[in-house]
Amino acid sequence: MSSASDLLAPGVRRMRPDDHFMVLSETDASPMHVGALLMLEVPQAQKAGLAAAFRRQLAERLPATPLLVRLFQSPEGFDSDVWVDVAGADLDRLVMAEDMPLADDAALYAAVAERNMIRLDLTSPPFLAYVFTGLRDDRAAIYFKMHHCVADGIGFQEVLRLLSDEAPPVPPRTADATLPGEDEWRRIAEARFAAEEGLRGAQSATRKQALAALEPLAGERAATPALDLGGATSNRRSYTTVSIPLEPFKAVAGRLGATVNDLFLACASHGLHDVLASESALPAEPLVVNTARSYRRAEHGSFGNRIVAMHPHLATNLSDPIARLHAIQASMRSEMRRTAYDEALLDALEKPFGARDRRATFARLHGSGGRVLPGNVTLSNVPGPAAERRFMGWRQLHNFPVPIIGSGRFANITSRRSGANLDMGVITDAAKIAEARAIARGFEEGFAQYAALGNNQTSIED
């Protein structure tokens, strides 16, 4: 949902500062995409033409999404950069048929890891799709990615819904939107900034209050430890997946007095601990996570980024699994106490020359090689559909995330619900952790360990 101040002209919407962050934090070594590897049940005899069918699916549904747009920079960075609606997309270029034979899932994951590093051209619709038909069994895969500046993980799930069979086709657009000339754009922007001056002043006062409230909490946050695996992120990736039935996962979490997210973090901690220990790279201090909480409300609409960064630690310095789980829960509670104040710092109106100043700030950060946010790794648990989903009539078997690795981190594990499963994507900087499968295997071993502990806990209580 766009407010009146978001609209520069019909079909021309200003980019919020939160979304601009996703553009500016991107580098060749850290493309900022939100992605999914959709596994579909498609008989071998019917795989021919799957890419063409997906192009038709998109052509009929893209106008309902925020993806039929191009990005334009504002003159001199005075106003926000803007999304301009376009009538259509070159789907022959944006949807690629990948028909090469794939011996197994590992070959598919290697192909996805390679394509994960291809940056998107934001002067055209900000997405790409790769349709893989070369799997030997009755499955096909679609790797679909869009730029993170369009929406966060929750918004991405809505995009996938709108592109699936669940959503009906919509009428096509007939023309591109038109930008005003530079002089007119400047006049409109000056009027907007003048009208919003009072609101910006109120937000500034709220931010000062939030900063003051955060000061007493500063000592609660664990510092991000320096790692041998830290430093600049490479342009190489290793990718794999994990799928665990959701109901058993929820049941184990419940028996341990934890949420699904608590158990997800604890299992990830187990995997990361074992892999770093095997590499003689485990720090004495606990690893710190870059994760997020959504603050999206109905008035915000379905798209754009409405997330607050959180940085709990993973208690990788503790060997006892239950003590580790409890320490993670305590760290998450501490981080949750901060989020209302962090939200006040983030949810800000644009200011004159805000786009120009943000570009200068990120140019300095990239020049120094500094980490943009705290955290050694990224972990995310994103809601997903409970019901069965289909594309072009074919049943979706899995909706595996294909995560990103932010500057200065070495791994990302992202989970989302897909029907009866908790589907996860694990990606590593392959120059630091050569095989993402090692972390995935550790995650699965961690869940087995907690499942056994949960069963013991039940028998003791009974």
Automatic annotation (TrEMBL):
<comment type="pathway">
    <text>Lipid metabolism.</text>
</comment>
<keyword id="KW-0808">Transferase</keyword>
<dbReference type="Pfam" id="PF03007">
    <property type="entry name" value="WS_DGAT_cat"/>
</dbReference>
<keyword id="KW-0012">Acyltransferase</keyword>
<dbReference type="InterPro" id="IPR004255">
    <property type="entry name" value="O-acyltransferase_WSD1_N"/>
</dbReference>
<dbReference type="InterPro" id="IPR023213">
    <property type="entry name" value="CAT-like_dom_sf"/>
</dbReference>
<dbReference type="InterPro" id="IPR045034">
    <property type="entry name" value="O-acyltransferase_WSD1-like"/>
</dbReference>
<feature type="domain" description="O-acyltransferase WSD1-like N-terminal">
    <location>
        <begin position="15"/>
        <end position="263"/>
    </location>
</feature>
<comment type="pathway">
    <text>Glycerolipid metabolism; triacylglycerol biosynthesis.</text>
</comment>
<protein>
    <recommendedName>
        <fullName>diacylglycerol O-acyltransferase</fullName>
        <ecNumber>2.3.1.20</ecNumber>
    </recommendedName>
</protein>
<comment type="similarity">
    <text>Belongs to the long-chain O-acyltransferase family.</text>
</comment>
<keyword id="KW-0319">Glycerol metabolism</keyword>
<dbReference type="InterPro" id="IPR009721">
    <property type="entry name" value="O-acyltransferase_WSD1_C"/>
</dbReference>
<feature type="domain" description="O-acyltransferase WSD1 C-terminal">
    <location>
        <begin position="304"/>
        <end position="449"/>
    </location>
</feature>
<dbReference type="Pfam" id="PF06974">
    <property type="entry name" value="WS_DGAT_C"/>
</dbReference>
